[in-house]
Amino acid sequence: MAMRKRSLLTVIGVVFLVLVMTGLALAFDKVRFAVISDPHISIPQQKGVSDGFKLGLKTVMLTESAVAQINKIPNLHFVLVGGDLTQDAEPWNVDEVRRILDELKVPYFVVLGNHDLSRVPHEKKDQPVTLSKYTVAGAFVGRSGGMVPGMTYYSHPLAKDLVLIALDASRAQVFSPEADLNDYGGKIDPGQMRWLEGVLKANQKKTIILLTHHNLVPWGEGDKANHNNYGWFRMDNADEVRALLKKYGVKLVFSGHRHISTRYQQIDGTYFFVHPALSTYPMRYTVYELTPQELSWEVKNVPALADVWELAKKNFMDNKWWRGPDQPDTPEGNQKYLEFYESPGTMKGKIAYR
Predict the structure, then answer these.
(1) What global pTM score does this model have?
(2) What is the predicted pLDDT for the residue at 181?
(3) Please, are residues 31 and 68 in contact by the beta-carbon 8 Å criterion?
């Protein structure tokens, strides 16, 4: 009788252990979320706003359209916003992007981009204002989630054992006469690196999504060769940051800045995703489903009238700076240019990362 009781207790113990381990592995079942990036909000009535490669006059409409569509997604948990929220950190544009994002029915989490601090001289603006990136970040404190007073980067729980880490790679705080107005690169400074390692160490057993505007990997030959200063798209100390992510087993990194359609690279067990801009052709956002074992996604076009799409594509094709070294203005080069930005083969996908 005692032997049978001990055997029963052993079985119960094994079952309990399996349940505990399963519970740890499946801390969250499934989350659905959207990623938007680079809205570059610019109120049309203000000085210097026009439709070029970025559809400045249409940014409010395009972002509102994306938000309206995202609000129709069933069982959505949150939205990530990958930076370059504004044209150049003008206070009226900060207010406007905040107003639009506040229309989301789920929490949203932002990071700052290189355009979310003012690099524009005063004489080119309607009003003599220069915003610190801390002022821009402060506008989102207490709005939905994420930003905390006095900081421009943060971590935030998204679900049980699912954590968001949002970085700030912008180099400067405000415009100064000595600043290089044409420098849009990024770097994680030493203080933020120490903070990042501390957060990663404290959350080693959790699933982490790292959100950053600047990229940690190159996305084309032009990026690698610094064609047209394309090194701006990648953090200066990207290798150092990637080594830290590898050390702590981070699986997912989301970025914007490059204005190309969603795709990924896998390096040392980390999946690096880049996302399209709302403000430039091909004007898209991405919907994800995440479980402890896999990530799937579908890329969506922002709803807009046909003439808006025609203008966006025309301005895109006419632009020379955004063309890579293998994308000249020739029939073959134009095809490569379109395929690189549209990335038709990555509109849907799935990866198993554990």
Answers:
(1) 0.89
(2) 52
(3) no
228, two tokens: 């047209």
Q: How far apart, in whole angstroms, are the C-alpha atoms of residue 121 and residue 143?
A: 30
Sequence length of the chain is 354
Question: Is residue 115 over pLDDT 60?
Answer: yes
Q: Residue 308: how many CA atoms within 13 Å on its side-chain side? A: 20
* H-run or E-run covering 350: strand 348-352
Q: How many CB atoms are closer than 10 A to CB 102?
A: 12
What's the rounded mean pLDDT across residues 64-91?
96
**Whether 123 contacts 131, CB under 8 Å:** no
Query: Residue 50 is encoded by which pair of tokens?
Result: 């026009």
Q: Which CATH class is domain 31-352?
A: alpha beta
- Where b means 16+ CB within 10 Å and e means fewer, 281-308 reads bbbbbbbbbbebeebebebbebebeeeb
Please report which residue ranges of the chain form alpha helices under DSSP H: 2-25, 59-70, 91-101, 133-138, 190-202, 221-225, 238-247, 306-318, 331-342
Cα dihedral 56/58/63/64 (nearest 10): 140
The domain locations on the chain are 31-352
Q: C-alpha 23: how far from its chain's center?
A: 30
3-state secondary structure of 84: coil
HSE, side-chain direction, 13 A CA sphere, residue 205: 7
Choice between 120 and 37, residue whose per-residue pLDDT is larger: 37
97, 41 Cβ separation under 8 angstroms: yes
Retrieve residue 106's tokens: 């789920």
Q: How far apart, in whole angstroms, are the C-alpha atoms of residue 137 and residue 131?
A: 10
User: What's the half-sphere exposure (Cβ side, CA atoms, 13 Å) at 295?
Assistant: 20
pLDDT over 90 at 32, yes or no: yes
Band of residue 143 on the pLDDT scale cut at 50, 70, 90: confident
Half-sphere exposure (CA, 13 Å, Cβ side) for 188?
24
- Rounded to the nearest integer, the mean pLDDT of the chain is 88
